[in-house]
Amino acid sequence: EEEGAMLDKAAEHVIAFNLAGLTNVENDVWFPWLRERLCGDKCTETIADEYRRQLGTIIDAVIDEREHIDRLAYAVRDQAKMASVSAIGSSKRREAIANVAEMSASLATRFQAMFEMSAERILVPAVALIVSEKDQRAVSNKVIRKLGVLDSRRHLVGMYDAVLDEGSTKERELFESEMPSLAQAMIPRWRRKLYEPTAGMLDGLSAGKIRV
Fold first, then answer.
1. Is 200 helix (H, G, I), strand (E, B) or coil?
2. Could you tell me the pLDDT band of residue 32, with boundaries at 50, 70 and 90?
3. Are 60 and 32 in contact (CB under 8 A)?
4. What span, in angstroms and rounded, lies between the C-alpha atoms of 102 and 15?
5. What pTM, to 2 d.p., does this model score?
6. Where do runs of H (alpha helix) occur along the chain?
7. What is the CB-side half-sphere exposure of residue 209 using CA atoms within 13 A?
């Protein structure tokens, strides 16, 4: 039961907080902004109509894949909840934990493939080439306002941890150059006060305390 409860807490943080926050930002800020700047009238560079259509098709495909990912993620969330219910019996809980492991692997694979094939190779370079740095900073501020002060701080801690886990000197230097020095200095405090109370259970998962 303790293992199932730990898994449920971890799924709640990753899916109901991290992924839900990402989805809201993408749907309300990021995807509309991409369409305006890469495909619409607010594009400040001269782009052939054919290229605009191609970029629009790629954005549509990313949105469609994100919807599939969200459905899979909430299926993981449901299975994690089931793993924490003592009334269903130990065999059903073990089955739910196994389902979480299998679906989580599929979720990670689809997210990585989407990022590598569309975002990293096409959309990010297109934004860097076409959109001014001023507009890029403006949308970053919109994202922070959309998340809210407390949530944006928790997301920032998680982002910093992900950069460290990646082990890439380039990614770390990029993070340090783009993030204000005050925010970076506050990360240890935000981790202790805001992040660990909700995400601390993930340490139990990485330590191998969840077994099928």
1. coil
2. very high
3. no
4. 16
5. 0.73
6. 2-11, 20-25, 31-34, 49-83, 90-114, 124-130, 133-147, 149-166, 169-178, 181-190, 196-199, 201-206
7. 15
